[in-house]
Each structure stands twice: as C-alpha cells, then as structure tokens.
Please model this.
Amino acid sequence: MLNIKVFGIVQGVGFRPFVKNLADSHKIFGNVANRGSYVEIYAQGAENDLNNFISALKTQNPPRSTILKVDISTFPDKNFSDFQIIESVHEKGDIFVSPDISICEKCAEELFNPKNRRYLHPFINCTACGPRLTILKNMPYDRERTSMNDFPMCDACKAEYFDKNSRRFDAQPICCNDCGPKVYILGKNLRGHDAIKFARKILVSGGIVAIKGIGGFHLACDAHNFNAVERLRNSKTRPTKPFAVMFRNISAVKRECYLSDAEKSFLDSPQKPIVLLQKKIGSIAENVAPNINKLGVLLPYTPLHMLIFDFPDEISDFPDALIMTSGNPSGVPITIDDDAAIKNFDFCDAILSHNRQILLRADDSVMDFIENRPSMIRRSRGFAPLPIFFSSNKKSVLAIGGELKNTFCLAKNDLFYASPYIGDVGNLQTVEVLEKSIARMSDLLEIEPEIIACDLHPRYQTTILAEKLSEKLKIPLVKVQHHYAHILSCMAENNFAGEVIGVAFDGTGYGLDGKIWGGEFFLCDTKNFERVASIKSFKQAGGDKSAREGWRIALSFMNLDIARELRLADEKNLRGVKFLLDNDINCVESTSAGRIFDAAAAILGVCKVSSYEGEAAMRLQAIAERSERKFAAKSMNTDEILGEMIKMRLAGEKICDLAKLFHDLLAEMIFGTVLGISERSKIKTVALSGGVFQNSLLSGLVMEKLRFAGLKVLRHELIPANDGGICIGQAIYAKNLV
Ligand code: ZN
Ligand code: ZN
Ligand code: FE
Model:
C-alpha cells in the first residue's frame, strides 16, 4: 500500500473528489483526507494500476489546484474494500489556503438557465469556483469552518455534496435558492430578486449603489454617466484619482480599450484582477480616469455581478460598464459589514447587501503591463494568500510592511505569505484593521511569529504597532531600511539570493541617516546592503505638503524670477516657500526620485499639486507617451536634468517632448550610474524596485539599456514594486538574521 502526500493548493478546489474518482477508475482501494497542510492518500491496488493512478494524479489535477510536491512512501496492506473520502484530520505543517476564485463558466451557464434549480441564485458556486480565503475561519477547509456554516444545506444540496458524480461533490460553499445566503436592500423591505431589480433600476437611472461583494463593498454607478461619476467623486472626496470600470464582457472592453493577448489572459483569468488598459476614444465618461491614457478594467467575477448586468427584467438598456470602486471612506480600509455600510454610504441611493459574512477583507487586485509582462500594482483578491517560495530557515516571522499601500507578510520555512491589501495606515481605524487581519491570518496559517519586522521610520503607525506587538508577544523586533526591503522583495520574487546592484526609485522612505531617501543605488545581498550612490540631494520644504505639492520641490531648483515666469504658484506661496528654503526652516534633505517626478511635472505645468499619490508621475508619463521624439543620450544628474527642463520650457519647446526628454535623461542617468557600479564591483545583476518603476516608460527604457550592456535585470511582475511589496523584503531580512 502507498501513502501519498500531496502538497499545494489542494483544498477547496475539488481535489478529494478528484482523487476518489481517479481511484475508482483505476480500481484503487483506500482513502483520502485533508490534513490541513496537505492531502493524504492511502492507495492499494495492482502495481500497474497504482502507477497509472499516480501519474494521473500529478497530471490531471483539477484546474484550480496547484501541486507543489508529492511525497510517496510504502506501508503494509490493509483490509480496504473500497475507496473513501474520510473526515478531515488536523495536522501541523505548511499551509496553502486557496485565494477566492471567480465564478466558472459552468456555474455562469446554470445561473441563467431557467430550468436549473439555481436559476438566478446570487451565490451559485462549485468545486472550481467561489469564495475561499474571505469566508474561511480555520484550516482544514470544510464548511463548518467557513462563514457558510450559518446556512445548513437543504436536502437537494446535500445530495449533490455527497454525489461523487456531481460538480459540487464535496464543494464546501455549496448552496441554492432554498438554503443559501440572501441578498437584500438595507433599510428597505426588498429581498432576493426584488433587491437586485431595485439596484438595477437605480443604476440605470444614474444613481449610486453600494454592493457587497467577496472581499468588501463596492460603490457602483453607470460609467457612461458623467454626472453620476461626478457625484460619486464629490461624495468620496476623490477629485481625480481614476475609478475602475467593470464591463459586462470582453466585447464591451474591446469597444473602449486596446487589449493584448497577455492582458486578456489575466483580465479573464480565475483571479479576475483589475487590468490597466490603453483607452480608446469611446463612450466612458471622461471623468472616470482623467488626465491619463489608461483605464482600470475588470470583468464580473461573482454571480451577483452577472445578475446586476443581466437580470431578466423589464430594463433593456442597462449599461454594459459600471464604476466599481472599493467602498471605503477616504483613508480607511474597505467596508465589509452592514453597520459600517449604513454609516459610510449615506450618500448612496441604495445599499445592496447580503448575509454571508466576510471574514477577511480583500480589495480587487490591480495589474499593469510592462513589456507585455504583468506589473502588479495591488496584490490582493485572487492572489493573496498564495505564498512566495524563497529558500530560508524554519523561523516564523511577521513582517508588518510599510505605511502606505500596506500589506503584511507571515513567513515560515521557505514560504512567504503576503496578506491581502490593507491600505494606507495613517489612522487608528486602519491600525485596528491591520492588527485584526494579522491575528486572523496568523490563526489561519498557524504561524506564531518568533520575530517581528517593520520599517525603520520611527513615526510610522506600522512601526508603533510592531513595537507594541513585540512587547506583547515578547519577541524581538527588527527594523529594516525601506529601500533595502524593496530590493529584497524583488530578489525574492526572482528567487535570487546572490549579490545584486539594487536600484530603488521610490516616493519616500526613511534613510539610515534620518533623511528622506528614494533614489538609491545599493550593493546588496540578503544579509547586508551598502548605499553606493543616490540621486543628488535636494531640500523638501513644508513637511507633508511637499509630498503632494510638486511646485514646492520644483522651487528648490530655481530662483524666484524663473518660478514666476513658469507660474509655479501665486506670489505669496512662492515667497513663503522660498523663505523656508533659504533659511532652512521646516526643510528636510531628500533623495526621493518620486519627488523629482513631481518637480518635473510642476515645471512643465502638467501637475503642480497632486490629489493622490503618484498622480504627477502618472500624468507626466501619459503626456510623454504623446511625443514622437527620440533624444540623444546625455549623462546628467537630476539637478541638471531639471535645469534642462526649465531652460527648454522657457524656450517654448513642446510639453510632451519635454516630458519624454525627462524620461530619457532619467533612464540614462540610472543606466550610467549602474554601469559605473558594475564596472567597479564586477556585479552583473541589477534589481529594480520602488514605486517609480511602475512607470512603464521609464522601466522599459532602463531595462533595454541595461540588457544591451549585458547586465541581467530582475524586475517585479506579481509582487508590487511599490510599498505593497516591502513586507516580503522585511520578512526575508528578519529570517536571515538567525
Ligand atoms: Zn463553478
Ligand atoms: Zn440548497
Ligand atoms: Fe517605498
């Protein structure tokens, strides 16, 4: 008899029923069980049958499962007379929790089939699809340990659950119109289909509806309706930050956006992330994503989304594109329950909710493409908590992550599990959510941290939380320099543990010298780093304001006369900030590359004040992409580059050409610096990280030059280059300390 242990995403994806069917067809006796961290099979039969069984096991596994490792050992035979699925038995070990999976094609078909008993059921799912992480309390994955435990199965569902020929054999969230959760309109006596029809009526007439989804609420309105979008912007105090748009189907997407095969493969994947696509001139309202060339696009990924677009009622002109933006008040994590929804969404015309609890928040993931490869902007629903593999020791680590775009990481053995997106941890409410999410994920993954890691910044809320947890749990705290953590996360993603030249171009991070860093060149490995170069330092005047108001940065590169000529700001502000700069009042020294982008955007008049993080850089790139000019490579430092911008702007050069020139010169500066470091150090591998490298124009230019010079480039694909990725870098450093 063989004992087979299968490791990987083998829970909640129909793996045990698959094994049972396979065993039956190969005349194998024995059993299969979830062990929490793996699936264990006892298999007994003729040698030939066993061999066929094992090879089929490895190659014909269900579409949503991922086999990472199979261990096989021999045992004496037992008295089996059939093959059975046995109760889950809990054992400790590496844990693989499935992310949430979008509705599959078969379920979508049944959803709109009037003859099916799940016709129009907003929670239809099967072993291949449905929520997982967001409804899971503990491992192993069984109904009683999910928020579906509140909904006892009806007889018909029970029959399917136990029928090995059913698509829903052993499907934990199985339910139907009779026994499943219910949708309703909050504050109104409208339930089920009436609730969906009501929401559709409001949306088609230009209203705003809050809709409870898989990992939190969305705010929805007609994406073609300028006034509806404007009202949503005003209510959310979000003047220009782009909204994501959910399209009914691929053909509606293609009408409004260009779509490559690579982009389509992710857009329509089981993860269904938001993908940033090049806009066409179409019918989407211009205030959905103003001043940039791209649009964040996603497809319906739950049965409820599909019903909102296509419910068979009397409405025939329902829009095929809806704004679907995370339902959260500014600066606070996504709303997940009714009480908070009532408080937060008073401006909505309706709140469409349901009574299945969300146990862990998960915002939509957001993905861009660079050189036709993914470039993750926000790694959350569909991807978290899939671990990243990186050879390491057994120590358990909790890395709290950064302050902006926070995610945290729990690591054990060679596995690094990054959490879903938490958000900007600027206030106590977010800290509370972060703390609770850490507790839930630690429970779920059964990781008791022995070390905590956090950022070096003394005033980050995340640092304060890390200090508190370190004291409470009586475990050591390790602080990791921000940009070093960025580079480590890039090395981890590329499974590279050697020496690299790390280029971290970023917004803001606390430096070893207490100054603001963000345009850094390191020599490093997984244990140490040395800052070998950085961009030329400059003064940031006016504290927090200098991170939003690019004209303040620009002013430190010119005199007042030129600032007036460029109309950087009004006279009073110009004089005020110049006074601060000249007398070194409320100024910090900075090497932030992100701020250099802000300064360039202000000098060119593209964006003088940002209303969201990265706005100036995104708009600068969008304008640069209109330029056809190619400039001769010149080696300049950032002072000289901005000086050149000023000179040429005053000479009347076209803004788009200058925006392009800025990217060209910056790429050349990065390239030249790396080349010098490589010649001196003989290191030939370069890791690019930090939010600035989300700029596909700059990244493309830099990578091309580096590769042409024979250097190996490590870049981000599925781990964000921005602060959403640094928790992994922190965890690697902390683990390596022991
Ligand atoms: Zn399905
Ligand atoms: Zn049922
Ligand atoms: Fe950063």
Q: What stands out?
A: The chain has four domains: 2-85, 183-354, 385-494+723-737, 501-714. Residues 153-154, 156-157, 175-176, 178-179 surround zinc ion (ligand 2) (CB under 6 Å). DSSP finds 23 helices and 29 strands in the chain.
